[in-house]
Specification:
- Helix content is 50%, strand content 11%.
- With 253 residues, the chain is of the alpha+beta class.
- The protein has a domain of 169 residues: NADH Oxidase, CATH 3.40.109.
- The N and C termini lie far apart (48 Å).
C-alpha cells in the first residue's frame, strides 16, 4: 500500500504527456485502471457515466479529426472518452416500472461531475502504473461529432477525453497559482487589484510567458487567452453549438 507521502508525490508530480511510445497497454492493466476509475464517488451509486475506449489505429486517426488533429490522439495507446450517461439508468428504471426524470439541467451537471471524478481516478491510477496521460478539452468543442462517431445514443454526452500511453517524453512541470490565491477559508474572500497582481506574478514572469507574448504579438498573457486562444467569437459559437446538442440530447428544454 502506498504511504501518504507517496500518494502526495504522485499527485504533485503530474505531467501532461503528449508523446507516447509505440507500445500497447496490456488488457489486464487497462482493466485495473478503468476499475479504479469506477471506484470513484458518484451520486447515489447510480454510476451515470460510460467509458468509451478507442485503441484501433484507424479509429484513433479518425477520432483525431474532432480533436483538431492533435498528434497525441493518433499516437496514444488508448484514447478514453468519458461520458455522462443517463441512457442505461433510464432503461433500467423503465424496465422496472419506475418513471425516470433525469433528462434535465440538474442531472446534466450531476452526471458531468460524476464523469469528471471517474476521469481523474483513471488518470491517477494510470500515472501510478508508469503511464502518461493528457486531458483533451476539445471534446466539448466537437461534442456532436464525437457523439456521432462513437454512436452515443440520446442521453449520453461526452464530457472529457484522455489520451494514455507509455511516455516518450518527460515534460516540464506546469506552473500553478499560489495556494493562498486559490484556497478560501470559511467564506470567499474577493480579490483586490493587489491580490490579482500577486496571484499571477510568477506566471507572468516566466520565460515561457515572455516568449509566448513575443510570438503572439500581444501586450500580456491575459490578451493571449482573450484574443488568441479562447476568443469571444469562438466561445459564443461553441456555446450555441453545445446548447443545440444538449437540447437534442434531452437535457435542455
Amino acid at each position: 500500500m502506498q504511504t501518504i507521502s507517496e500518494t502526495l508525490n504522485l499527485l504533485k508530480n503530474h505531467r501532461s504527456v503528449r508523446k507516447y511510445k509505440d507500445q500497447p497497454i496490456e488488457q489486464e492493466l487497462l482493466d485495473q485502471i478503468l476499475e479504479a476509475g469506477m471506484r470513484g464517488s458518484n451520486t447515489g451509486n447510480m454510476q451515470i457515466y460510460s467509458i468509451v475506449v478507442t485503441r484501433d489505429a484507424q479509429r484513433k486517426k479518425e477520432l483525431a479529426k474532432f480533436h483538431f488533429n492533435q498528434p497525441m490522439v493518433a499516437n496514444a495507446a488508448a484514447v478514453i472518452t468519458v461520458c455522462l450517461d443517463i441512457n442505461r439508468w433510464d432503461k433500467w428504471c423503465l424496465q422496472r416500472n419506475a418513471d425516470p426524470a433525469y433528462d434535465n439541467l440538474l442531472w446534466l451537471l450531476t452526471g458531468s461531475v460524476d464523469a469528471t471524478i471517474v476521469s481523474q481516478n483513471i488518470c491517477v491510477a494510470a500515472e501510478a502504473q508508469g503511464l502518461g496521460i493528457c486531458y483533451l478539452g476539445t471534446v466539448l468543442y466537437s461534442a456532436p461529432e464525437i457523439a456521432e462517431f462513437l454512436k452515443l445514443p440520446k442521453g449520453v454526452v461526452p464530457i472529457t477525453t484522455i489520451t494514455m500511453g507509455y511516455p516518450d517524453e518527460t515534460p516540464a512541470e506546469s506552473d500553478r497559482l499560489p495556494l493562498d490565491s486559490v484556497v478560501h477559508y470559511e467564506q470567499y474572500r474577493d480579490y483586490t487589484p493587489a491580490d490579482i497582481n500577486k496571484a499571477f506574478a510568477e506566471k507572468e514572469n516566466l520565460q515561457l510567458t515572455k516568449d509566448l507574448i513575443k510570438q503572439n504579438g500581444t501586450e500580456n498573457l491575459a490578451q493571449i487567452f482573450t484574443q488568441k486562444r479562447y476568443t469571444k467569437a469562438d466561445n459564443i459559437a461553441i456555446s450555441e453549438k453545445l446548447y443545440k446538442y444538449l437540447k437534442d440530447s434531452g437535457f435542455l428544454k
